[in-house]
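seq/struct pair 1
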Amino acid sequence: MVIKHTKGFKTKVNTNVHYEVWTDREAVIKNLKRRPGVMFVSLILYKDYVGLYFQPLYFNPSLLSEIPKNLLPYKKGVTSFHFRELSASQLLEIELLIILGLSFYKSKHWV
């Protein structure tokens, strides 16, 4: 699901327990910091859960209002969600969230 929406991104980590994609265009963060790229999404398999780290929420807090309500109980930090198991509807909602983040990154010309 994540992979089909991350064409044009750079995979920085791809192991059995960790997958992480970044932009590879220079990004200017809050008109101050220039970075060679920024993280988009990371998935990490822990002992008891899978962590989804969705960086667009950090750069665009207004996306918080667009998080599907069914995902809110899994939100654990500014950009993180912890899942023990997922339903088909939650997978679709995560995909929607990824599409929203991708749209934001495109608007910033980071992708």
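seq/struct pair 2
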Amino acid sequence: MKYKQTLIIGIGSIACLTAALAIAAPKWQSGMTGMMGGPGMMSGACAMGGSPGMLKGSSPQGQDIGVIQTQLDELKSQLKLSKEQQVRWDEFKLVVKRQAGSMLAHRQEMLEFMQSSQTLTLPKRLAFHSDMMGKRFASMTSYSAALTDLYQSLTPEQQGILDQDGFMGCY
């Protein structure tokens, strides 16, 4: 009787674990695992996670500048910008392209760091992470300013399109 209960509990536990892994595996396959066990900062859209609206169709290997260009072109077409709004759009587009290049460099730095971090002291690892966070913060600040300028130049209908698209580029 005890052997039968143990066997049933064991089989049930294995089945539950297998089901949990089957459900979670697709999320983990897209990149490094994050602190809480889910997709990490190097997965998905802009190498820092992100929603499907951020960069639809981006590859697991990273950001392709061509993908961003296509998305910017599609978004511009949807917005139907006036000549006056075009100036803000051009400024925004320049920032987005600059950020995409910066994000590719950031991703490469992170990959190189992960490969060499085992030999670094803890203070050097923390300094590296602090430096990278500072760069990303500066990038986000620049992106946010450009997006805000563009957004303020749009009509309420155009703002709604941008709100729905959720395009956040690479900051």
